Structure formats: structure tokens, C-alpha cells
Structures
1.
Amino acid sequence: MTNPPTTARPGRGRPVAFTADARTVFLDAVAAGAKLHEAAQKAGVSRNVPAQHAKDDVAFRAALDQARATGRAIRAQSMPHGESRYNHGGCRCTVCCSKATAARTARRREAAEPEEEAAQPIPLTGRTPGSSPSFLLARAS
Ligand SMILES: [Zn+2]
């Protein structure tokens, strides 16, 4: 099977309405830590427009990658210190380390000692497989 090259072909589909101004608003919002759909909303475009645009425009894609990295760093900074920031933000301050260690230790202890209820057998209700109604009828006749 020979597929045509998957490069963008001009004149194909509806032209994307994503003006330079809207792009700037979008990239600024992303760099400020906004989620992509929030940034798109702020720029007044549909949430899939920037992604579509990034496929065709190499310069825009590079700018978007840069803005996303900046936004991620800003979001990580505003995250409160704790296990989540240790895991997702990569923070290794004393607060994050001690909270992550405490949470991990608690989970390990929980996994090593199953709770009392879990050890109880499930009570059997209803018929056992050996006593089907047809068998009982056969015996009665
Ligand atoms: Zn921290």
C-alpha cells in the first residue's frame, strides 16, 4: 500500500482562524501556567485549533513547547510542599522528603498487614453447586 506523504497540503480543509494576536494570547496564557484548553478559551479559539496549528507550523510548535515548559515550572512552584510535589514537582526539600517518606511508609505497612475484614471468609449464601433443583426432583420421584 502506498500512502501519500503526510505533510500539510495547502488548500486542504477549512483555513484555521488563529491570528497572530490570538497566538500571542494563547502562548502567554500557557507560559503563565494555564491548561491548554483554558489558554485556548482565553485566546478565543476552539481547544483543538492550537494543536492543529502546531502540526503545520514548526515555529509555533517550538514556541508552544517552550511555553508549556515554562507553564509546568510555574505550576510546580505554586504546588504546596508535600508528597505530590515530591512525586510530580521533583521537589527534594526537607518538607517534601519527610512527607513523601511518611506516606510511603504508611502504604507499605498497610500492604504488609492486611486488614482484619479482608481475612474473613465470604459467607456462603444460597445453594451449593452440588444441590441443583433437578437433582432434588430426581431423588423425590
Ligand atoms: Zn518541597
2.
Amino acid sequence: MSTHTEDTTTGSTVAATASEQYTVPTGDDAFVCEYCGAPFATEEYHSLHLGLQHGASLTDDQRDAFEAAATDEAEELKLFRLKALGLLVLLYFGLLMTYAVVT
Ligand SMILES: [Zn+2]
């Protein structure tokens, strides 16, 4: 499960950056962590924070939300990897063809 560890790291970076950049008013609109009181700009960041920081004490609903948010990020990552892999395969066959023509 090495990919899962990577996703977790990405999520925490995003959440940390968001809470640093935006001053979220702790009103009714903001998503505030019920465990530590940290404010978040979006529900997704909030869900990621809950899963990463308070994974042991989550309710089923909170765990579902975290998994949904984490899956979104994982799919973006997968798409990027797929594109990179496609590029490598193209490059490989390009070189192979060049080699075949030259020799
Ligand atoms: Zn918290």
C-alpha cells in the first residue's frame, strides 16, 4: 500500500497550505474540526483533515467523507501517472523505431 501513504502526504500538504493562505472566519459557514477546532475553507479539506489527524475517532459518515475526498486526489494522481507512462511508452517505441531504421 505504498500509493496510499503518498496520497496521505499529499492531502496533509494541501490542508496545511489552505489553512495558512486563507483566514477562515470561525462562523457558521466555515468547516471547523470538532476535535481540535481547526478551520477549513472547504468541506473536502475538512474531511481530509479528519481522516488524517483523527482517523481513530471518526464516525462512519466522517470516514466515508474522508475516503471520498482521498479518492478524488488519488484519481488525479493516477491520471497524471497514466499520462507520464503513456509518454514513456511512446518515447520507448520511438527510439526502438529509430534504432531499427538506423541499423
Ligand atoms: Zn482536527
3.
Amino acid sequence: MNFFSYFNRILHGHPSGSKLLVLCSLSSGGLLAYADSHSDDNKSIIEQSPKEPQKKKVVVLGTGWAGTSFLKDLDLKSYDVQVVSPRNYFAFTPLLPSVTCGTVEARSIVEPVRNIIKKRSGEIQFWEAECLKIDPANKKVICCSNVEENAARNDKFSLEYDYLVIAVGAQVNTFNTPGVFEHCHFLKEIEDAQRIRRTVIDCFEKAVLPGMTEEERKTNLHFVIVGGGPTGVEFAADLHDFVHEDLVKIYPLVKDLVKITVIQSGDHILNMFDKRISSFAEQKFQRDGIEVLTGCRVIRVSDKLINVKMKSTGEDISIPHGIVVWSTGLGTRPLLRDFMQQIGQGNRRILATDEWLRVEGCEDVYALGDCATIDQRKIMEDISSIFKAADKDDSGFLTIEEFQDVVEDIIIRYPQVELYLKSKHFSEVTDLLKDSEGNDRDAVTIEDFELALSHVDSKMKSLPATAQVAAQQGAYLSRCFNIKEKGKHDPEGPLRFRGPGRHEFRPFRYKHFVQFVALGGEQVAAELPGDRVSMGRSTQWLWYSVYARRRTTLLNAGYAVGEVKTIQDLAGVKIQETSKPAIKSDKVLHQLSDTNN
Ligand SMILES: Cc1cc2nc3c(=O)[nH]c(=O)nc-3n(C[C@H](O)[C@H](O)[C@H](O)COP(=O)(O)OP(=O)(O)OC[C@H]3O[C@@H](n4cnc5c(N)ncnc54)[C@H](O)[C@@H]3O)c2cc1C
């Protein structure tokens, strides 16, 4: 029994319990909602009871890592919160690759949104719907119900907001490669994982049919993964274990014909990780017989072939395949492309926010998680304002004492300074102001100051699109919302170098804890804080302790209400298999009450 099966058994090793009818009584929290069929634009307007007019209306789009983390600790005494998402559950994505091979059940990695709301005394309203348009000029969003596709009904409605929190994640990026949408599988959602699992089994079934040539069998059993990032690599590793531990026993005739190939455009797989992890993974894959094709770009995919161009030689190669899983990078959702056009960000690839997660060019709108990127301000853009603010006596010289007075604010406002100091092994910030021979100086001119800090911005890094970043941003933003009033009178942020006073809050700062990649065969690699890595079999226990803790939290929700033994029982949700795309009208989960009726 491998580690993942063991883990799965722990999660499900309980007798099945009685079903639970979940009653979500939204009105109990004092919020009333109704649909007004006479609304303008032929759409319903969901209005809130005027009971507590002082409360600001917050609309949250998305129930992924960022959205749910924001909701967890938001102070509901100050806000009326409405959540819109086409999925009525939160998915624990790090375990999604394991769902493709059945080592983890899909139902084990979801938490119903209703459950999350219930923990907040039901005071949050949830609409299972997709946001179709953001209208920042009128501070409203237009949504469409995801519950039932019925052309005769008008399922559109609009929600007004005082504050909008956009956490809609990203969609797959095909880089406009022909054939990808039609012939590739993606691995973003629960039902993608289930579809992949079914197709892998179908490939084996086809390969053992009578009358097949050996070549045809090999083609059916060639599993190609495009993208050597963590998702592609974890899927390849899980698939390898699934094939070699389970499927070859069921289909012994074709066991020697199976091939797994990972295609990567860069020179190495996992190239966003430490080099040690990347080469550890490549060696592990070599031992396992997983082929890694680096330095090539996919130019076309058809139902039987994938065409790649070798970067070094320019040669085109056609590779026959049974299934292609496409896992290369993230793209912006059409909803946000339209929004970006409206707010003057139309020429950007991804929605930009400032360091406080406020969308640039738009009032009272925040964006977090995979759908946005922080546009970190360069220190060189503000260098003369910083000098001016620090040079209190206006002497034209900055003394060490004057510099020390603003150092903390500089470090908080421009995180690249700290990274630069580390890279230069400087122990004191004032080391920055030493002369070219390394001697201390009592004071510096603006020119010296500019020169001293001129390389700092080279250390600016954009944050990775990970669950850790999204969750930390959600928690950060809810804290800012909770202390919004206090921030106005008693600001806690750094000095404003280009204006008076201080910023209300500290800017968002990401703290890296640990990033795992499961490489199959009980081997896990982890990137730890402080440029440390951990690799091998022992690392799986670290993996287990981090992920099991999160999963236990999910399961505990079930135990709290009695006989319920799984998340799915608790929520009354059912994962349906569907061939439709994940977002629009993707009916994955339903209320138990619906299916029971
Ligand atoms: C297979 C896989 C494995 C991963 N493994 C790891 C890992 O091990 N570690 C790690 O740190 N990260 C991992 N990630 C990355 C991580 O899942 C993402 O970074 C994270 O999900 C981003 O969170 P988010 O809230 O921004 O977006 P998501 O979690 O994608 O949530 C987006 C939400 O918005 C909703 N939505 C979409 N469109 C609309 C709309 N129009 N209106 C309203 N709502 C909408 C969606 O239904 C969803 O609820 C993995 C990702 C995948 C796909």
C-alpha cells in the first residue's frame, strides 16, 4: 500500500454514517434577500434589508483559496457580505492530481461553501452563479445563475457593492495553440480530474481490444503531459504509480507498452523551484522511465498526434498519443479582460493591484489570488521623495541618523530592499550608504543616495500563483477590512513618501512556508524558507503533517454534527460527471435535498 492509499484510508476508514439534511437558513443571521422581478435592465436586483444601513455591502467573487480565506475571519458586524461563485464548494487543489488516479477521492477534497457560511452563523449570503460583468462606474456586478440552464427563465441578477473583492482565479492558458481546446485535457477542477481518470482507463480498454496492432496499442498507451511545472510533474508521478501499481495488474498483456512523456519548453522541469529539486525530480523520472522532453514547444494537437518544435534544431516532430494533459501556465478570464478594458488596464496581461491589493485605476475594488498580480512600486521611482522626506532639516544632505529614522518605513514599503540586503550579505541597512571602498559616511547627497539604491529594484519578484499566496492575501485583506475604521484615525502603515501622513495599513507581505511537489513512490520534495530544501521519502511525513492537518479540519466539520463521516455527506453535495467546461453552467455539485426529491 503506498503512502497516498494509506492517507486515503485514514480519511475514509470510518463506517458510513447517516445522511444529513443540511438546512441552510440564511435568514437566521438577520439578512434578508429577495429578487425583484420589476428591476431595471430586465434583471433582478438582490436587495438587502434596510435593517442595518450602516453596514457596508461587500460582494466577493469566487470561493477558491483567496475568496474562502477572506471570508473566514471577516468581521460580519461591519459588513453585509454576498458571495458569488459558480462552484458551491471549495476545492483543496494540491490533492487534485491524486484524484486523477483515485488515490484520493474527489469528495475528500471539497468543502461546501454552505458549510463555511454555517460556521459564520449563516450571516453570509451565497449565490451559486457566475459573474458575467463588473460595472465599476455604477458599483455593481451582473451575475447569471448557475443552478439551472433554462432558456425560458431570466436567471440574471445584479448586486450592488460598496466594496468588491475579486477572487475568480485564472483559466488555463493554451497560448492559442491549435487543437488544444478540442483535444487536450486540463487539470484545474474536480471534474477535470475525474474525466482524466476515466480517459486513462479508456486508453487501456482500447489498447487491449482484439485486432489492434502493436503500434496502435502503444499509441493508446502513450500519456503525454504538456508542462513541467508542479501540476504536470505531480500528475505524471501519480499516473506512473497508478499504472505500475494498479493498472498493469488488471491489463498485464500491455504492461510493457505504456509510456509517459512530459514536454517542457524550458531546459528543466520544475524550473521555478530550487535547482536541487529540479534535478532530483529529473533523476527520479529517469529511474521510473518517464521521458522528459525539454526545450520544445507544442505547435499543434490533433486527436492522434501532438506536434512539437525542437528549439535547438527547429525540427518538427509528430508524437502519437492516447491522451494529452495540458498544464502550462495561467490565462486571464474573459470577465476580467472586459473589466481591465473598462479601467484602463486593457494593455496588461493580468489585472494589476497595488501592494494593498487595491485594483489600480478603480475605487473600492480589490483583487487577490491567481487572478491578479501586485504591481510593486520601484524605489527608484520615489527616490527623490524619500530623500526629501528623510532630510528633515532640508540641508540637501542625508545624515545616517536621518536615514535611520525612515529605514523601517522604507523596508515595509519596498520589500525589495530587504531582499537586496540579503543578497549583498549586508547586516545593517546603513551599509547601503557606505562609499565605494566600504567606508562609513556621515551623510550623503541625493546623487550618492540614488547610486546607493540604484540596484535594489533588480530584486523585485512577482509572487507565484499558489494556494499559499492566495490564502495569505485573503487573510490579509479581511484583517484590513476589520480595522478599516481604526486605520483612518490611527494608521499602522509606513510613511507616505509622496504625500502627507502614513498609509492606513501595512502593504501585503508574502511569507513563504513550504512548497511541496509529490514525485510518486512516496518521494516528496519541499522548498522550505531560507533557501532550504528537503527531498526524499522522509519529506512525505512533512507533506502529510501539513496536508492532513488541513484535511482534518475539513473532516472535523463533519464530526461536529453527529453521524456524518464525509464532507460530501455533510454538505449533501454530489459530484456529477460532466463533459461541459468548468465555469459556465458547470453543474458539479447539488444540494442533497434536490437529488433526494
Ligand atoms: C492541480 C493543481 C494543483 C495545485 N497544487 C498546488 C500546491 O500544491 N500548492 C499550492 O500552493 N498551490 C497549488 N495549486 C495552485 C492553487 O490551487 C492556486 O494558486 C489557487 O487555487 C488560487 O486560488 P484563487 O482563490 O485565486 O483561485 P481558485 O482557487 O481557482 O478559485 C477561483 C474561484 O472563482 C470562481 N469563479 C470563476 N469564475 C467566476 C466568475 N465569473 N464569477 C464568480 N466566481 C468565479 C471559481 O469557481 C472558484 O471558486 C495547484 C493548482 C492546481 C490546478
4.
Amino acid sequence: MIANTVKKTFSLFKPNPLAEQIDFASKDSIPIRHLAIGFEGEKVDLSFYMNNQFATIFFATLSVFLTYGEDLVIETARHHRDLLKDPILKQRVTSLIGQEAIHSKLHNEFNDAIVELGYPVTLYRFLGSNFFKYIFLQFPQPLKLSLMAGIEHFTAVLAEYMMKHEQNFYFSEDAKTRALWMWHMLEESEHKDVAYDVYEVLNGNYALRISGFALAYFTILGLIPFSASLVPVFRKPQEMLTAKFWKDAKRGVKLIFSPKDGVFGSTQGQIFDYLRKDFHPNDHDTSKYLEYYKQKLLSEGGALHPFFVKEFTPKVQAA
Ligand SMILES: [Fe+2]
Ligand SMILES: [Fe+2]
């Protein structure tokens, strides 16, 4: 009986790769953009997000932890790129790797800068790197692939929310923090289907896909908010004795978790849409937003224009 149960459990996770061919050539190619921002600690606005320190600290915490998520995406994408046959999907994976590598680099520069503001970067880097090293990076490759697709789903939902709420980035004069997040959101939306397509082409098992989603959910909406809530304790515990702090914290929680219009609160339906068996990231069409932002941010006077260095698109290599 035990053997039967084990067998049944394993069969639940049997690969079920996509049978039909996807025409990857019909998709837009993805450029890798280099930016040079040069953050200066004392000039980073700790109330950047809608004049709210608590919500800004949430995003700073996300900035610290997501560099490890990006490293996992890079490692996993590299491993699976070698298993792919379609040369255009391989090219898209190279773009994903390139974009994530530069995200990780620039977020690390931002994270270095916020040390000056008393943010516990060293402690959180220690916790984040060990958590990923001893837990997530130890997973077998199929689970890592599913986790990568799950993480990318969250960043896609976050990116879509931010693209629909452009004004939220303009409460502050801090043009560098604005450039970091707007560039990152633009690219997360641009490559949102790559990890998912790789997962469907190479594995496609539904139960495994949902396992990766659950792990991403637990990390992004459990561990990160919990870690963010502890930052004031390490940074300026005396501030926690003031009414102003708790007023700011209450508003910050709403900005992130309110079901009405909070970043993650109002997008739970879209987050859980991932559970649909026939889900695909492009079911949520963001192409118009992408066009608008590429045009607006990168051209003269745009938020990314002063920091833009160069861009290139990886070549399609013969299979
Ligand atoms: Fe990223
Ligand atoms: Fe991404």
C-alpha cells in the first residue's frame, strides 16, 4: 500500500511536455539594456514610494532578496537552455539571463547605497544568501525550473500593476530609484513568458508547476513582508515609539496589501490565475503598456534616458 501511494505521488509529478509547437519567431525579440545609475546613499529617498517609508522599506527588502531570486533564475535558465531545441526560444532564454544579470547588478548597487540609511543590508544578505544556497539551490532542476516560472509570474504581476499605476513612481524627486524600478518593471514584463514557455516545453507537469508557485508565494508574500516588518527594529527602534511611525506603517500596509488598490492585495486574483490549467502569461496582454513605456522612458526627457548606456539583442544561434 505504501509503495502504491509513493508510486501515485511520483506519477503526479511525471513530466508532460507541451505537444504542440509554439511559433517563437512570431514573438518580439528581447534586448539586453545596460544602465549606469550610480546610487548615492544619502540621496536615496526612503519615502520614495508614495511618500511612505514603510512601503518603501518593503521594496528595499524586495530589492535585497530578489537579487538571490535573480541568481537562481540565471543558474536555472542556463542549465535548461542547453536542453532546448528551438533556437529562438534559446535566444529568448539568453535575453532573460542577460536582463536578470543586470537587474541583480544594479539592485546590488542600490542595496550597497542604502547601508548609509541604516538599512540592515549585511544581515539580510547573510540570511538571503544562505536561505537560497542551502534550500532553493539544493532543489532538483525540475523543481528549480518550476520555482523560476513561479517567481517570474510574481514579477510579471508586479510589473503590470506598476505599469498601470505610473503615477506611484512620481511622488519623489529621487530620479535614480525611479529609474531602477521602472526599468526593472519594463523588462520583467518584456520577458514574462520566457521561463513559463521553457517550463511547458521541457516539463509541463501541472502539480510541479503549482509547487513552484506555492514556494514563490511563500517567499514573496510571506518571508519578504515579514523581513520588511523587522527593518525598523534594526534601523531606528526609537522611531517605533512615535505615533507618526505607526500611522506611516498602517498606510504602508494598505499600499501593499489593501484588496482595493494595494500592490499585492488587489492583484491576488491575477496571482491565483496561475492555478488555471491552461494559464499562459500572455493571457494578460501588456503589449500596449510595454510599447508606451519603451517609447516614453527611453526617449529624451524619459526616466531612463539619462542612465541608458547601450542595448543589444543576442543572436539566434543555429541549433
Ligand atoms: Fe529581474
Ligand atoms: Fe524576471
